[in-house]
Design goal:
Number of strands: 25
CATH superfamily of the largest domain: Vaccinia Virus protein VP39
Number of domains: 3
Shape: elongated
Distance between the termini: 25 Å
């Protein structure tokens, strides 16, 4: 199995670890100010970072050296349309966070195009404020002729604004790499009104309506030739037996059109009009073998529509319902988490079992979760240790016994020390997560506080302890006293140091001066220190039962989809 997680900048991971023409399907939901107003993108930021939905991207989407390097990479590449497009955007937009975002996305899309197979496809999920710019970039990278759809997904119930219509949707741009891409039809249940309006006839087999076995336009091959006295060319049409009908009745899909028609006639499914009438034969589409409505490009959950679908207890598009703060058991607490059903639609439509799905901005891992559930292989990349840790927990909780590889995260003392030296903030995130807590969301101004942990207190209450991470500097008694003052001020009963260096005798004495706290779970030191070696190899700090900062994923039943076209097998 290919299943792998990579911590790091996805541009570097793609260039160093993902081979040409190796990926079947790419889904990406790149973060950019998704929780803030987009008007901030047009402000000249100078050296200040543009806040993104994930803290690690604060510096990434700021106009500066990285954005300039991205434009230089594009300029020295071989994609002339992209070079012209980015030059034009640079002149029109100027040097601000939006242009930085487009430059950084463009250079990554070039790499994603490289790793995608000719039979593959890409879905880019974005906010409508930037979607039109991204479509221009995608057209330049993939070719405008390879654009397939702009999918509209309803991301919330309402977003009231007195000055405009409520913005409640996201955009998903859908591209193929080449005409070799083969789409897999996905069906949804019929509306009851549709069934009542169309399936009006019945025979001993059940309810049916007559449907077309021919398509518009003439053809020169067998599909344009007369069959049993009926000439489609004379009517400006050609024979076209629906693929779902072929699948439903077990007809060999490689048969010529006339032989497929013969097979349908042998099944008693063809209605023949009077000869000379100019009409062409139709087939009886029975309700019990009809696959449902083909999925369209508007994916919008409709509240209060339960009871309107035939053979289903769901509301319209309930499988892609947005995740509310209170109800869905799949919600993990990640701010930009998408519903698994959304990714299931994408994966079912554009990949087959055992093919490889890549998410280069994988966040809390919804795409890799859906890929695993549907029997696909997967690769996820993210630049935050929070995301990688959440995905590891999510996959191991949801799929007990699952095997996958994680690359780029500290697995031993030396790699942890390297992370502490190379990126203090990411080391703090890793350490807080690894100890069972959660890190600060913002850099700087921490006053010695780098994170917190939740624990179970008396009477079932949940209380919070404080974490201070010292990666490069030596821990000294003054730091212990500072943390003690923070604990007293903010009423934290427990404090924890994570340190790269071994604590000195003075530090241990200062920590020992803090009391033991009596709880219903036992006695625990009010303040403790844990080294990197102990963090990796044990023993763990002695704390009351910890409460995970995010909800554990429920166990998932793996499901490989083999559509056969029956109403009972709808996705």
């Amino acid at each position: 199995m290919t299943n792998k997680l990579y911590y790091g900048d996805n541009l570097e991971v793609l260039r160093e670890h993902i081979a040409d023409d190796s990926i079947d399907l790419i889904y990406l939901d790149p973060p950019f100010n998704s929780n803030a107003g987009y008007n901030v993108l047009w402000h000249q930021k100078g050296g200040a970072g543009a806040d993104a939905s994930i803290e690690a991207f604060d510096d990434t989407w700021t106009w500066g050296d990285s954005a300039k390097e991205a434009l230089l990479d594009i300029a020295k590449g071989t994609n002339r349309p992209l070079q012209v497009m980015m030059d034009a955007m640079h002149s029109a937009i100027g040097e601000n966070p939006m242009m930085a975002y487009l430059a950084m996305m463009a250079v990554r899309l070039v790499e994603l195009h490289r790793v995608l197979k000719d039979t593959g496809s890409l879905y880019l999920h974005c906010d409508p404020t930037a979607s039109h710019y991204l479509k221009l970039v995608l057209d330049a990278v993939f070719g405008a002729e390879n654009w397939l759809n702009e999918i509209i997904w309803r991301r919330t119930g309402s977003h009231n604004n007195a000055k405009r219509f409520g913005p409640i949707h996201d955009v998903i741009h859908f591209y193929q790499k080449s005409n070799a891409y083969e789409h897999r039809p996905v069906f949804r249940p019929y509306l009851k009104g549709h069934v009542d309006s169309f399936f009006k006839r019945s025979d001993k087999r059940g309810r049916y309506w007559t449907n077309s076995i021919h398509g518009a336009g003439t053809r020169n091959g067998e599909s344009g030739q007369a069959w049993r006295g009926y000439d489609p060319t004379a009517a400006g049409r050609h024979w076209a037996v629906p693929s779902e009908l072929v699948t439903a009745f077990g007809i060999d899909p490689d048969l010529p059109q006339h032989e497929k028609l013969d097979a349908l006639a042998d099944f008693g499914l063809i209605d023949f009009p009077p000869t000379g009438s100019g009409a062409l034969p139709t087939y009886r589409q029975y309700l019990d073998t009809s696959p449902g409505m083909l999925l369209q490009d508007l994916w919008a959950y409709q509240p209060h529509t339960k009871g309107t679908l035939y053979g289903s207890v769901e509301a319209i598009d309930e499988d892609v319902r947005w995740l509310s703060a209170r109800d869905r058991k799949e919600r993990l607490g990640y701010p930009t988490q998408k519903p698994v059903g959304l990714l299931e639609r994408v994966i079912n439509a554009s990949s087959k079992p055992d093919q490889i799905v890549l998410d280069p901005f994988c966040g809390c891992g919804t795409a890799v979760d859906a890929a695993q559930k549907l029997g696909r292989q997967w690769i996820g990349i993210d630049i935050t240790h929070i995301a990688i840790g959440m995905i590891e927990d999510r996959m191991r909780s949801g799929y007990p016994g699952i095997e996958f590889e994680t690359h780029g995260v500290p697995k031993d003392i030396d790699s942890a020390l390297r992370l502490a030296a190379d990126d203090k903030h990411q080391f703090q995130q890793w350490a807080c997560w690894h100890v069972g807590g959660y890190p600060r969301e913002k850099k700087g101004g921490d006053k010695g506080v780098d994170g917190w942990f939740n624990y179970l207190a008396e009477g079932g209450k949940i209380e919070t302890g404080v974490i201070s991470v010292k990666g490069g500097e030596h821990l000294n008694p003054a730091m212990v006293r500072d943390l003690g003052r923070v604990m007293e001020r903010d009423k934290h009963r427990f404090g924890l140091f994570v340190t790269a260096a071994l604590p000195t005798k003075g530090v241990r004495d200062e920590i020992a001066s803090h009391p033991l706290i009596e709880t219903e779970f036992g006695r625990f030191p009010a303040m403790q220190v844990v080294t990197i070696a102990e963090l990796i190899h044990g023993p763990k700090p002695k704390l009351p039962p910890l409460i995970s900062p995010v909800k554990k994923a429920s166990r998932v039943e793996t499901r490989v989809s083999h559509q056969k076209g029956s109403q009972g097998e709808l996705l």
